[in-house]
# Entry
Amino acid sequence: MSAAAKARRSDPGLEIVAYERSGYVSYGSCGFPYAIKGEIARVEDVVVRTPERFAKQGITALVRHEVLEIDPAGGTVLVRNLNSGTEFRDRWDALVLTTGGAASRPPFPGVNLPGIFTLRTVEDALAIQQWIVEHRPTRGAIIGGGYIGLEMAEALDAHGVQLTLVERLPQVLPNLDAEMASHVQAELERQGVELRLDQPVEGFGGDERVREVVAGGQRIPADIVILAVGVKPNVELARAAGIALGPTGAVAVDDHQRTNLPSIWAAGDVAEALHRVTGRPAWVPLGTTANKQGRVAGENVAGGDARFAGIVGTAVVKVFDLEAASSGLSEAKARIGGYNVESVSATASSRAHYMPGHQPIHVKLVYESGSRRLLGGQLVGIEGVAKRIDIIAAALHQGWTVDELAELDLSYAPPFSPVWDPILVAANLARREG
Amino acid sequence: MSAAAKARRSDPGLEIVAYERSGYVSYGSCGFPYAIKGEIARVEDVVVRTPERFAKQGITALVRHEVLEIDPAGGTVLVRNLNSGTEFRDRWDALVLTTGGAASRPPFPGVNLPGIFTLRTVEDALAIQQWIVEHRPTRGAIIGGGYIGLEMAEALDAHGVQLTLVERLPQVLPNLDAEMASHVQAELERQGVELRLDQPVEGFGGDERVREVVAGGQRIPADIVILAVGVKPNVELARAAGIALGPTGAVAVDDHQRTNLPSIWAAGDVAEALHRVTGRPAWVPLGTTANKQGRVAGENVAGGDARFAGIVGTAVVKVFDLEAASSGLSEAKARIGGYNVESVSATASSRAHYMPGHQPIHVKLVYESGSRRLLGGQLVGIEGVAKRIDIIAAALHQGWTVDELAELDLSYAPPFSPVWDPILVAANLARREG
# Structure
């Protein structure tokens, strides 16, 4: 919808139609855990603009309309109205593919038992809410220790659900290195979440609904299960239409969001993005990137010459009282990527040491030996993490060395930072070791 | 003392002596308002390291020892022990001048009445604390609407002092443009501080102690007055020794913190710094810069080749419930500096729009017409301001355009930011207008 809105602003003469399979457009799915937790009054509050609002801008947004087929040669789409069941063809001069991603649902035995949920759409969030109201679950399991899994742990905990988190890897948050993730794991345990790391799920048991998770040979009772084991790009339409996929399995795009086919652009979670640290295409499905790519595609559809600069893979998550953030590559991922890696770690205070309420912030910086180019950074702490990571994001965006990072004139006042910001403490450590 | 500590780490063989006129070394004077407010238990808690601690590192820190004269040719200093009154000469091979700055105390009639305080040293802070305890002031005046004035307003307000703030300029916080400062002024008034802007102080009245401030032809009752009308570099020793001052009136230094005289370095509030936005020397006396310059001087004294990269003039202040931050040049200062200036302003949310507790953040970006180079940024809001300004600081450090700023891959999660960070909202606005 950001592509549609930008195209409309760029060219008031365009006829713009958006087809959406689900019942909602233009929503911030990242808000669902907070709606389920109860911090947001209604799931629908995460909707930014309704089809009625878009109509006033001259954009026709048709929900519950599934595009079944793209015909690039004929310049048409085949659409099914999911309410009436009727099908029709619509003509286009330019097409922006923004089919997004879908939650993975691996074929575990029993995975389709009622009470096992993925979380991606408004409908998913409403179904989880309804299940909580109707079944008042007391035991729950989170499958997957990524962002959604951890946010949903906080959300279900708020409903008094006793939780077990099952993760097939030896740590949560795979974008963090293990020792940084350990701070997050400690917070989860402090909050009463039982961790089962390094344990692949084997299946689910139950009768008319889920009753248990089987993992690592053990049975874990659960009246509700959140399956948060990853996301996949919705590339079926693209593949069938001959739109090329990239090495990540998502749709390949250039910096104008063009696909390999003329007059077809792609943006958002269905598409790849240039990772500025590696210089290679990456698939990091996040709302920020989706919005930026959408604008670029929308502007270009309207005859513009917009360019998407790429990503550095910045992300932050709130895990109960903790904030965990990363940008660029972790040490582990940098090594896998073939970089010759050095790293420094520091723990420094979120405020001046004498200020009440100061909290430790754990910082890790990863950089390349020799060139000393910053490859990534990670921050974990109770406060002051979320926007501090953006300093590292800015450095990565421009390919700075860790020494240049140490030079920054960062803000300081006792309530907000020590005189040496935690990032500068870590960067200075790298300088001393270098 | 950061120069001393760095020199010690760099060369364990050096004999290092630090002479300090006051009774304390190595303290964070920015913490004083919070000590006076009562958030910090004792004023002395802001001391980072005592002379005893330095002694263990092999650094002799002599407090209450005033250097009266530097003899560059002979390589000596003349020192007075303020406890005993005795004077002696000490020899040096290398000298680092770190005499800092002093609070301005203009010769207003009555300025020396008891109850009128500047705030710069531990002794100042202790004197203010003692005055509050002994005299229980009910009416107070803050002279000057800079950082210290505003922080002291919050501190005295916490003691139930009814405050009037007198500022000779038409706004507080001169690093902000007037419309951004107006948010700060509204917060001060909301907190019950009476503002007298555009009113130069004419003098003070009283008997054995201050009773009133005279400003704008009116008498303002006051049992305590904080005189926070600026800071001056302590350049008397330098000037007498033939150390060259720069255009700002502070000591001129190169990027190695060298002065014009051989074997004499200068660092901290007594010295200038290269302003990376203007490319010219600036005098922005802040603890962060002082610490960085100190390290550079210390490393070079020990035979190193360290370089100070310069500043962009980043600062943040907490004013009651508000955070106000700036980096680079305001629009007004950029115009005075001769730049052809454009600016954009936006107000965006500190968190996702559907999250409880979200607060508006006011953003202003200033950039050069034509080149579109970012010249400065300002942020004011209840939360999420202090470290967000560092994104702008990073952009200014490298001389980015406002369009490059708009490309950044900034962190996003609903509790910490909208999907379009307020800084990106403003930068996109510049892009659209450009």
